[in-house]
Each structure stands twice: as C-alpha cells, then as structure tokens.
C-alpha cells in the first residue's frame, strides 16, 4: 500500500493542481465556451462564428467558422496543448474557408492561455499576437 501511495500521489497532485481555480495560472475551463474575436491580429470575418468550448476535462469542441470540430487538450497550469482535431467538412465561402484553416492551424500550435475576466488570450507558436476570445458561457 505505501508504494502505491508514493507512486500515485504525485500524479494526483499534478492533476488536481490543473483543475483547481486557485492554482497559479490555472484557467477555469471546464464548462466554459468562448467566441473568437481576433485571430492573431487579423480580426474575424463578420457573420462567421468561430468558437472554442471545453465541455469536460480534456475535451474541446467548437465552430471553426463554417464547420464544427472536436478533440482533446491537456492543460498544465497555463500551458495548453490540443490533440488532433476532427470535424465536419461542409463547403464554405473561400474567405471563410481560409479563416477556418488559419484558426484550426493556430489551435494546433497553441502553447499558453491567459484568462482575464471574460477574455481569454491563447498564445500560439509562430503568431506575434495571441488569439483573443470572449466568454459566452461560464
């Protein structure tokens, strides 16, 4: 029994630290939904809906501008990594399709999150400015 405790205790503490709202840098993500307001300094096409939701721990879903997507994520304090994303394949207007491609590419390169009230910033490898989201559901 003591061996099992010493083996599992660090793992449980690490997972708990990620989920605690008071943990340094931890974002209260589970159950939250966000609307993309700015795609790394390029804005978002009016009338196109790009979202990001965290329906349960380790799962993401959303609208990528035209299509729906879903996948997994890991969060360690303020560090985030999204797993492979899957989604629908509806036809989109060329400009919306291009925005969707940029958005999905950015999500795959996400590195760090900052939640400031109703705003979430997602820092992405290769982008000078972060993605900026507004909370739509607590």
Short précis:
With 138 residues, the chain is of the alpha+beta class. It has helices spanning 2-19, 94-108; strands at residues 33-39, 49-56, 59-65, 68-76, 79-82, 86-87, 110-116, 119-124, 131-137.
Number of E-state strands:
9
CATH-scheme architecture:
Beta Barrel
| CATH class label | Mainly Beta
Which segments are poorly predicted (pLDDT under 50) over 5 or more consecutive residues?
Answer: 1-26
Q: How far apart lie the N and C ends? A: 40 Å
User: Main beta sheet: strand number and arrangement?
Assistant: 9 strands, antiparallel
- SSE string, helix = H, strand = E? HEEEEEEHEEE
Could you tell me the mean pLDDT? 85
- Helix-and-strand structural type: alpha+beta
CATH topology: Lipocalin
**Domains (count):** 1
Instruction: Give the proportion of residues in helices.
Output: 10-25%
Shape: globular
Q: What's the total helix number?
A: 2
**What's the multimeric state?**
single chain
Please report which band the strand proportion falls in: under 5%, 5-15%, 15-25%, 25-35%, 35-45% or over 45%. Answer: 35-45%
Radius of gyration: 16 Å
């Amino acid at each position: 029994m003591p061996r099992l405790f010493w083996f599992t205790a660090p793992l449980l503490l690490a997972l708990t630290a990620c989920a605690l709202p008071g943990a340094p840098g931890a974002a209260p993500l589970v159950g939250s939904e966000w609307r993309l307001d700015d795609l790394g300094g390029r804005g978002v096409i009016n009338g196109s809906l790009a979202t990001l939701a965290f329906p349960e721990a380790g799962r993401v879903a959303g609208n990528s501008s035209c299509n729906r997507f879903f996948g997994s994520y890991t969060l360690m304090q303020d560090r985030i990594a999204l797993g492979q994303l899957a989604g629908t394949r509806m036809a989109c207007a060329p400009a919306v399709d291009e925005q969707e491609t940029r958005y999905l590419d950015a999500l795959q390169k996400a590195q760090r999150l900052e939640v400031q009230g109703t705003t979430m910033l997602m820092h992405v490898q290769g982008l000078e400015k972060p993605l900026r989201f507004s909370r739509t559901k607590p």
